[in-house]
Amino acid sequence: MKVVAGSASVELARELTRDLAASAGAGFIEVAYEKHPGGFPDGERYARLLGPVSGEHVVLVQTTHPDPMIVELFLLADAIRDAGARRLTAVVPYFGYGRQDKRFLDGEAVSAKTIAKHIAVDCDELLTMAIPANPEILKTFPLPTREVSGMPAIGRYLKSAKVDVILAPDEGALRLAKEASSVAGVPFDFLVKERIDSYTVKIEPKALAVRGKSVGIVDDVISTGGTIATAAKELKAQGARRVIAACVHGLFVDNAEKNLKGLDDVIATDTIQSPHTKVSVAPEFAAAIRALG
Predict the structure, then answer these.
(1) Is there a contact between 71 and 85 (Cβ–Cβ < 8 Å)?
(2) Of 2, 113, 193, 213, which is the active-site residue?
(3) What single DSSP character describes residue 240?
(4) Cα-flanking dihedrals φ and ψ of residue 226, to 5°?
(5) 98-128 as b/e, with b when 16 or more CB fall inside 10 Å?
């Protein structure tokens, strides 16, 4: 087995290689990026495999965010197939363009299915994590696809951080809090959230036993940080001693860093590299790859 990293996911791919080395004899294939003689001053991507993959089961790891990373994924997948790989598994830790899972207006592109269709050209199966849209969309993809949970990794971190309770920012994310809490060994609950618009949320007061406690808030994505910041403010008002925010995908766009200043700690996994990346989901993806057989 060989592991190839797109430039958005090099650290995760290296961790995954280490996790797979004992059980699957995995090795890491280096890739040259944008080092073509003469270069591409117009910004086009360039990628070249620097090791053999003929006859191998290859795991290609690449988050499809931001947009150029999508092109890079397709270039690498094509190069791996052309180089003679017998099987190609795409690991897309953060599935960019996964939010639109249906057509709301005539003429709209269903972006999640569009990206999956192009991945299926060269790949045999797809593993992804915490897809933003309804996970049921995965059943419509034109290749076998599995959503791998990042909550065990989050739960392990929160256990080491000695949180007393784990909360979801709304009822829709309760399943995430439940899963993380089962690993951390602490109770779980949720906050009552009302979304006003794309940038504004309102957290309704809810009597929670958080006074004097260390609280972990878990979610699949932190984007602008508005929801988490509002939740943390409410928890502090109810007497929480410490509030930690933990997410699988840390986008941290717009005023996120400013919004999150009221948190005692903010952590994200390595599906997207950021200054808040403190947890690796490599063990979760390694287990899923071993289960492929």
Answers:
(1) no
(2) 193
(3) B
(4) -65, -45
(5) bebbeeeeeeeebbbbebbeebbebbbbbbb
Q: Assign 129 to helix, strand or coil.
A: strand
As beta bridge partners, residue 194 has 202
Our answer to whether residue 193 is catalytic in this structure is: yes
Name all domains of the chain by residue range, CATH numbers in brackets.
2-148 (3.40.50.2020), 151-279 (3.40.50.2020)
Distance of CA 107 to the CA centre of its chain: 29
The per-residue pLDDT for range 118-141, each reduced to its tens digit, is 999 999 999 999 987 677 889 889
The DSSP call for residue 149 is: P
Is the backbone of residue 53 left (phi > 0), alpha (psi -120 to 50) or beta? alpha
Residue 243, phi then psi, degrees to nearest 5: -130, 125
> pLDDT (tens digit, 9 = 90+) per residue, 235-287?
999 999 999 999 999 999 999 999 999 999 999 999 999 999 999 999 999 99
